[in-house]
Structure formats: C-alpha cells, structure tokens
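Recap for those who missed Tuesday's class. We walked through two folding examples back to back. For each one, the amino acid string is listed first and its predicted structure tokens come directly after. Nothing is annotated here on purpose, so try labeling regions yourself before you check the end of the notes.
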Amino acid sequence: MLLTVVAPFSVALWVLTAWLWPNAFICDLMPGYWWLLGGMVLLGVPLAIGSLLAPHQQAVSDKSRNLLRQMLAWLHNPKMGWVLASLVTGAVSGLLMKAAVHKAFVPMSAWYGADWHELSLGVPLTSLVFLAAVTIQIVLTGRTFYGPYREWWARVGRWILILTIVWAVGSSLAIYAPLLLFAPWLLPSSKVGSLVVWLFNSLFKPYIMKSKNGKSSEPAGVNLRLLRWISLGISILGLALYLPIVLELSLASLYGANMKMNEVWIQPFAESPNWVFAHFAILNSVNSVWLIPIFIVILLVCLQLSYRVNLNEFSMNLMYRNRLVRCYLGATHQERDPNSISGPDSGDDLLLSTLRSSQGYSGPLPILNGSLNLVSTRDLAYQVRKAESFPMTPLRCGFDTLTEQSNLERNYALEKIMGHAASISKYAYRPTAKYGNENGGFYLGTAMIISGAAAGPNAGYDSVSSPALLMTFFNLRLGFWAGNPRNNITWTHPGPKVGLAQLLRELFGLTNDNAKYVYLSDGSHFENLGVYELVKRRCKFILACDAGADPEYAFDDLGNAIRKCREDIGVEIELDTTPLIPKSSGTNSDKSGKKQTTQHCVVGTIHYDMVDPEGGKGIFVYLKASLTGDEPADVLNYQTGHTTFPHQSTADQSFTESQFESYRRLGQHVVETLFAGREATAHEGPLISARASDKLHGLSTAELFEDLKEKWPKNVPKEA
C-alpha cells in the first residue's frame, strides 16, 4: 500500500504544488469554472474510474419494461452514485485549491525565500486539500460506501496525514530554526542558556530516561515519568534546532563572504528585513541543481560505510563485551597472555557450543536469556511486551512463540501468501555451533553481552519510539543484530552485511521476527529471572535468585515471570511472598527506618498438571535480596551508611570494595540460611537461622528440594 498508493499520491501532490507555486499569480486570475473543470479532470475522473473498477458493488436490479423506471434504477445503482460523488468531489477540490492559492500561495510567493516556503508549507497545504476532498467523497457516497472501503481509505488517509505532518514539521524546523535562534530580539544570554540546558539534559538523559521497569528508583516528590517526557522534548527540540544552525554556519562561511552577507547575518541586532533576507540568501546560495547529486553521493558514502563497518562493532556493544570477558572469563584464564597495551587476551573467550559434555565440559548447562525485540509486530499479543524470549544454550539458539502455536500453520501460510516469508521457516531454533557463524557459532562473551544489553533504542516492554530515535542518534546501543533463526539464508550470518537498513529499523522501532536479521537485547526486557525458559522445559526443581533493585519490594520481576508462565505456557506458580515483605514497624524495622524481612526465601509449587495431567508438580524456591537482622556485622554496618542496600540502583556499575563484599557476603548468608533452615515458633518472634545440617550431604536433587520444602513451609509462624 505504501509503495503503490501512498507514494504515488505524495509525488503527485508535490508535482502539483511545484507547478502551481510559480504560476500562482496567473492561476489566481483564472475564473472559477476552470478550477472546477481542473479538479474534475485531475481528481474526479480518477476517483470515478476507481469507483467503476471497485469490486463487491451491489447493483440494484429492475426487470421492469418501463424505460423511465429502468433509467431511475440505473441512476440509483451504487456505482453510478459513486461516479457522481467522485465528479462532485473533484469539482469541490478544485474550488478548495483555488482558495489555497489565493489565500496562501500568492501571499507567500512574495516573501523572502519563496521556494523554501513552498517546500515547507505549500506541499502540506496541497495534501490537506486532498484529504479534505476524500472526506467529502465519503460523505457524498453515504450508506453505499461500505465498511471495508471506509477502513481502506482511513488507513491510506492516516499514512498521508502522517507523511504530511512529518514533512511540514521536519522541513519547517530545518528552514526556520536559524531564524528563531538568531532573531534580533533574542538576547545572547538566552541563546547560550538554551545551549547549556540542552547539553546538560543530553549528559544526564541516560539516567532520566531509565524507565520504572528498568528498576530506576524514583525519589520522593519527583514524577520521573513527567521528567522523562520533558527531557525527551528538550532533546528532540535541541537536535531539531541546532543541527540546522550548524548547517547554516557552514553555508555562511562558504558563501557569505562572496555575497557580502556574512557581516549582516552574524550581527545579532541587525534590522529584521536584512536579517531575514540574509538567512534566505545563504540558503539560496546552494545551487538547487546540485542538491540531488550531493544527496546521491552522501547516500552512496553511507552505504559503503555501512558495508565496511560491522553494525554490532560500531556501538557500545563491543566495548561492553570486551570488558565483561576480561572481568569474568579472563579472571579464570590461568595462562593469560594479555596485550601489553589494551589488556585483553584472545584466549579469554570461548565458544558457547563447547560448554557440553562431548567437548569435555562437566558443569551445569547454561541458558543465557536474551530478548528478541518485536516493537513493530502485527501480533496483538505482543503490543505491550514488544519482545519474546530468546534463549542461548550450547545446544540451540533461537525462539518460539508459544501463544501462536495453535495458529502456526495458518500464520505461516499467510506469511507465504503475503510474500513476507519467502525464506522463512516455521520454527526458529538453530544449532549453536553454526548460529551466527558457520565456524563455531556464538562466543560465550557475545551471548553474555546480549543477555546484559540493558540500554538500547529497542528494549522490549521498555521500548518507546522517541527515546529510540535519540539513543540511536547518540549511538547509545548495547543490543546485537543477528541473523534471524527463522531465515534459512541469514541464520549463519554474524550480522547484517549492510547495516544501514537495520540501523534505520532500530531508529524507528521497526524490529520484528520476520526480517532477515533480528535485534537482540537484555533478557530482562522480556523476563528478568530466567524462570520462563525453565518452566517451558518442565524443570521440576527451580531456584530463582532475585537480586534486582526493588526498594519497595513490589516483586515486579517475580510477578512478570508468573504472569507470562500462566499466559504463554498455562502453568501456574503458587507462591506466598508475605514473609519477604518488610514491616513498617515492630521488630522488622529499627528506629532509622531500615527495612527488614522475616525470611530471605519462600518455597512454592509449580503446577505442571494444569496443562498435562501426568506432568505432576514442581518445587519453586525463590530467594530475595533482603536483610533479616542476623547478618554479619559488616553487612549491617554497610546498610547503616547506605540505606538503599541491598536494593541500590543497577545503573551503578562501579562497585567499591566494601559494596562488592557486602553484596557477596549477604548472598553467602542467604544461601547458608536457605540450607540451614530456621528455628522459631508462634511465640518466639522473628525467625532465626538454624545450624547447618549434615544430612544434606549426599542427597539427590529431588531429596534436597523436598527437604527445603519441609524447612520453609507455606504457613509462616506469626510474630509475637
């Protein structure tokens, strides 16, 4: 539709404006009937032809031999009504265009820089006349204009209106922004102050733009949502204003001296006519004949650069990956031979596919969770979540959409018919040894950075179109572009060969699961605890460690995991989190207001039998970063000076020694308490840790979890 309907209409409107504008004075003198005739020919006749060719029109049949009645029946035919309505619409549109020429085109043609006004204001005005004419036609056709046709025109009109607004706003800002910032009545201090505000906002935007789902804390009395929108508006307005200024400064330095206009242009208190004339004189200094060749050259340079530069490496992704590999994988590399200047060792990283028993690996099977972004999906089930789970294991990498399984065959056939799935497979799991690279597949470091790519333009349920534009512009991108596992051709590619198209998709939030390449980001953009993939695999025993920043103990990550498991998989997780909620008074809070819970963990039940009668039940152990008051003295001391501990913002990536050790020791204490059990009765008050039991040694996994279920029952002793 965009290619065959909207684009030709837009070009036709632009050509009509380009013809009317230089002839505005002559056309304004033409009598009204010429405008009526012109509108009928240019718009009415094409609409009438379309009406005759339109399918599913119900003609009124009259078998009477009376000639008059047959003529009346023919006139009453819906197709005839459409033809008449189209001709009347064309005539009215001609009169509307005459009014636009008389009231707008003629006066603006006398302004300085008339051609630039045509570009920014004339074309949108012609487009609005066309939209008004189409509305008139729909009204005139009345009840014979069936619902499907209304929906079709509504969709076409929507896109034309969007393009009109984008064209008008974008071109107007580019053309008139220098007039605003260099206006004589605008004081120099205001100009400098606006620049300082924009730069300050740009520096602190990463913190301000972090959403609530991203676990940023909201200070008391501060509406972060409103603050984010204000910051967003300042950023977009600043870009729209200052980029044209840079362009105009460049043009002024190139052409201003020759035209003797540079002195006039830079004088802040010059007379208004000279100031406006100088602005458009500088714009007119660019020969319009060279605009198209220059645009083509710039486009070719962009394509060549996007071919030479890997989109995944020309971002923060590679920097972040190198440091994660050096910090965690390099720490266990006993025979490191680091580069004496940069520090990394190529032997620090290893292939993800090698972490399997056939390769000599004897550890647990790692499942690294990523999110496949679906910001531009047609599936209504993903309009809020905007992502789906993308697990990476030593065996397989890929995804599946469980909510679509019942309609998988129908959806796949529809994609084939629409031409969206020429090389698309129904399923989307590929061998890790070849996914992303035919010679070994993903490296572990690559999977790690995908799983931890929290900041990016497309971030699952955190995705917002306007911040995506800004983050792409400033290259604040941690996400990763990989071959689509569903695509039979690109799934072995390490990334897009020409990244410009993918960068534009990232810029405008057009990521989906049918394209040749998919955009992967942090697993928390879909589900942060990693429970979802374990429940899909029917794991009987799950231990989830929640170390996310949750100062209000809202259990957002847990609630999100339980909700998605129920909606997508049909499995209910029964869990009582009451012992993990701090009390505002009594023994669970001291005089300084420190939050303390009665337990660090709770044990629940996974009801696999809800979807499979023979599936049985599983045991779900949930650990929460919390304090009960019996932690080591140094941990409690650290909280004294840092009241948000252990829920400090995850945006803090530079841990001090005391901070790191406090979190490490608290984690050790939580696990020790989990396996040691508890000692308390209904009258003893808060629970205390019991001594570790020797009977845990030698237990099987099933016996161990059954023991935990007995130690941490659902019914918790109440406080005295």
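Example two. Treat it independently of the first, because the proteins are unrelated.
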Amino acid sequence: MNASARLASWRSLARAWGRRFTAASIQIKTTGITVAVVLLLGVGVTWQVRAYLARELRQSLEERGVAVARGLASRSTDLVLTGNRFGLYELIRETIETNPDVRYAFIIDRDGQIAAHSFSNAVPPDLLQVNQATDEAPYRIELLASEEGLIHDIAVPLLGGRAGMIRVGLTEHRLRAAVARAVRALVAATAAALLVGVVAAILLTRVVTQPVLELVEVTRAVGAGQLDRKARRYMDDEIGELADAFNTMTDALARSRDELLRHNRELAALNAVIVAVSHSHDLRAALNAALAKTLESIPATAGWIVLLEGDRATLAAHCGLPEAFVARENSSAIAPCHCLEVLRTGDVTLLPTVQVACPRLERGRALDGVAWKDHLSIPLLAKDKVVGVMNIAMASAQAALGAANLSLLEAIGQQVGVAIENARLWEELKQKEVQRGQLLKRLISAQEDERKRIARELHDEAGSALTSLLVGLRLLEQQADVMGGLSERIGELKETCAHTLEGLHRLSAELRPSALDRLGIVAALEQMVADHGRRWGVAAHFQALGFDKFTLPSEVASSLYRIVQEALTNVARHAQARTVGVLLERRPDAVVLIVEDDGRGFDPHALAGDEGAHLGLLGIRERAALLGGRFTVESAPGQGTTLFVEIPCGAAMLTAACAEPALDNQPAKVVS
C-alpha cells in the first residue's frame, strides 16, 4: 500500500470516528471528555511526580551514601593503619545495620588487599575492577548494573589513597519502594478524581441537557402543529434565554398561522363567491348563488340583495327570508330606507354599517314574525359606482362582525358588483347579438335578392335582346349571299353575339346559380367544382359529410357558396395547381369548409401587411367573420395552399336556420 492509500485510509477512519463521536449524546460526550482530561492530567502528574521523586531520592541516596562512606573512612583509618581487622569488620557490620540502603561495604588497604568486607564469602572480582578512587577527588560514584538492580558504588580514598580505599554500595530498593508508594497514591488520587469527575459530568450534563431535551420535545410538538406548547425556563442562563426566545417565536408563529388561516378562509370564501357568480350569466341566479356562498362564509342564516330598477328598490336575491315577506316587498313600495338612499345617492361612505331601524325588518317583525332585529349593509360596487346593496341579517347590533369579516364582505361586495355589471353587459350583448344576427340575415338576403334580380334582368332583357339580334343576323346572312363580303362580316357579328350571349348566361348563373335554390348547397358546390375542373383542365374533387337529409340556412349556404367560388377563382388565377379538393363537413357545433390545392403556394406572413395583395382572401375572411366564423390559411412556397373556414353553430340551431350567430366572433388567423 503506497503513502497516498494509507493517508486516504487514515482519513476515512478519522471521518468514521468523527461521525461516531458527533452522533453520541451530550452526556456521553461530556463524560468522555471529563474521563479523558482526568486521565490525561493524572497520568501526566503521576509521571512528572515519579520522575521528580526518583531524581530527588536518587540524589539524596547518593549524598547519604557519600556521607556513610566518608564516615566509614574516617573511623577506619586508624584501624587500617594498626591492622585491626576485627575492628574493621565490626565497623562494617555496624554501618550496614544502621544504614538499610547499604548493600555492601569493603576496605582495601594500601597494598590493594581486602582488609574487611561485608560479603558472605569473598568480594566479587569484577567489583574490584570498577570505580577506582583517586587522590584528586574526595570520592567517586559509579552506577553498577546487577541482578538486584542499580548499585550506587561510592569509593572514598583513605588519607588521599595512601592508606587504602573504602568502597560502599547502595541499592535502590527503598527508593523504588518509595516511588512506587507515591505512584500508587497518585493513581488512587487520579481514580478518585476520575470518579468525582464522572459523577460531576453526569450531574452537570443532566442539568444542562434536561432543559434542552424538553426544548427538543416542545420543538417537535410545535413542528407537529401544537403551537400552544411552551418551553419551561429552568435557569436564568443562556438556556433560559433560549427557552424565552423559543416561546416568543412560537407565539409569533401562532399569530402568523391564525392570520394565514384567516386569509385562507377569506380567499376561499371570496373564491367561492367568484366561482358562483361566474358559472351563470343570469343575473338572478348569479346573485342568489353569491348570497348563499356569502352566508356560508360569515356564517349567517339570512340575507338579501337590493337593486335599484328605475326609482324602485327591489329584492333581486334573498336567502332565509319568509316567502310572504319577499312577495310583499317585491310587490309594493316601501318607506324610504338606508339602502334606497345609498342606491340613489351613490354615497359609498355610508356603507358598510349596521342598520338598526329598517322598514323592511320592522314590517317583517310585525307581519311575518321575523326574528332579526338588525342587518349589516354592504355596498355592491362596480367601477366605484354603487349598483346594489347586500344585507346580512343579525339578531342584534352586538352581533356585528369583526374587522376581518367586514373587510371580507367589502371584497365580496366588489366582486358581486362586478358580476352584476357583467351580467347586465351580457344581457346587452345578447340583445345586440340578436339584432346583429337579424341584420346579418337581412343583409345576406338583400344581397342574394339583388343578385337574383340582376341575374333575372340579364337573362330576360339583355338575353332576349341579344337573342333577337342573333336571329336578325341569321336572316340578314341568308339575304346577303348575293353581296360580296357582306356575308363574312355578318358571320363575325353573329359569332360575337353568340359568345356574348354565352358569357351573359354564365354570368347570370354565377350571380345566383339555380342549383343553389333548387338542389341545395351540396349539389351547387358539386356542380361548381366539376365546372371548374372542366374549364381549367385540373383534377377537381368534392366531398360532403354529414348532409344526409339536411339543409343549411339560406344565408349560411349562400356565404359558403361564395367562399368556395372565391377560393376556386384564386386557385385558377394564382396557384397553377394540377389538383384541387373541396370538403364540406357538418359537425355537432359547426360547419367546416376546406379548400386545398397542390399549387405553388405563397408566404402568408409576407401578405399580412398588404391588404391589396389578395383581395379574394380578404373577402373570404369578411364573409366568415359576418357569420361569427374563423378563417385560417396554411401555405408555404412550393407546398400548395389549404383554406379552413369554420362557422360555429349548434346542431339545433342549424336545423333552425342558425337564427342566432355565435358570439365569439374571432378574427381570421393566418398559419404558415
């Protein structure tokens, strides 16, 4: 394994232990840190004390050994000089008995012989070879290693070495015993300190972690939505300040939650009212639905909406009122009231307010036993104009709603006011659309009648005149055979007259084809497409779907016929197509016309700003728009052209001659 791999392994191991340490509880961490610190301090102090004590005791041992050796030397000098061996042995014995640390002692005379010793047999030869004293120093100390441990061998010369030398050996038995006793005492003290530290750490961490654990429990409860839970303040320290800050935060969260719930309820109520009024264009139905949703959101049991129709205030919608009360108030005039005053003056500052004296409720209490005493009036605004008043019945003035519900009712009043204005505009729009449909029908009928008249006059008057002219030319041709050159000229005139008559008949048919009146739109379009194919030499196809035993209204049929006519004319003039197809399809809610060719096509966007480029397309767009339809062009250079025309009209309305055109009169769009 290389160095980088070993380093990565150590890092991984360190991260693993770090994760284990951080995942442990605070009590375990604190106890572990306390144990580690106490052990570290105990081991360090024990090692330092042991080293210091061993050093001091060893120095003391050497000093004492030097003193013993020098004392022995001073007392044995005379005995050595006189050769008193018995005295020397007694002196050595006394010295060993009075000094427990002395392991051995022996005296060497001036001849280098052993004068006396403390060994049981003889002095070991190896011991004689070491630590030779000199006359230059009063003593000499040397450490000797033996089976019993270190020996401090001290050599002291006698009379400067002239009388011999004293050798004393001191062991470290007592020194080591003293150091061991001190180490044991320190270990015991460390163990006691460790025990006290562990107990203190456990107690301290329990004191610290108990509020934290309770705070964690309270936090989880708050996270689960129990914002009324509070954390206890155990002490006036940082944890106590944390508990106070947490309680302040939960109070703020509770207020924010209540405010948010209130806003949500208001938005839900407002949305319910908006949905209720938007699902119906009928004013009465929309007002009844809005009033019902408002009473649900307050909540309240009764209410009514007053609208001003002319100079008379009427109950446009009601909920929870007695039928007799409603019938009477809608059938007779009432005394002047606050609602009527607001409706007539348009003074928005008078609302909303709680009304105590109300002619309607007073009459209801007297005649119908109405239980409500007061009502809250809310203005229904549209473009800062009062269009009505919504009243919410209450049992007493003390039951007035709070500011929050009051703001909600004001918002509902604005939405209902807009709904009233939209409903009225919708009614006006429907009336205008009916008028527009009637005008469109008259316009198309007038156009077709005028076409019929022009076609009939062309056929009857101009056609008859040209026919008479042609007959006269034939007679003149028969009588002019004798005159040279006149017969040829008359033949040319007769041919010109015949071509003119043929063109006149074709123009009359195009102005108002008889097939459209006699056979219907399908047969007329089929004949037109076939004539176009024969006239221009292209493959022309026509198909009609969904027209079995079914006929279109005359104005729709005429418009579709003219649209196909204009489209085929554009194909003949511009497309250079080889194939053209026409599809007419009746769908449940519309009639769809598709005209497609494989000609050279064009770029519709290039013609979007040039109204004179394709007058035929503009004519088709206008005819489709008159019927509330949509016109779409899909084309590209070299890819042919497809025209889509859709006339929106339900099946029931189609069978009823499309009496009312669709309201979504969308402008034609161009798609490339």
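Answers for example two:
The chain is about 60% helix and 15% strand.
Residues 403-479 form the longest helix (77 residues).
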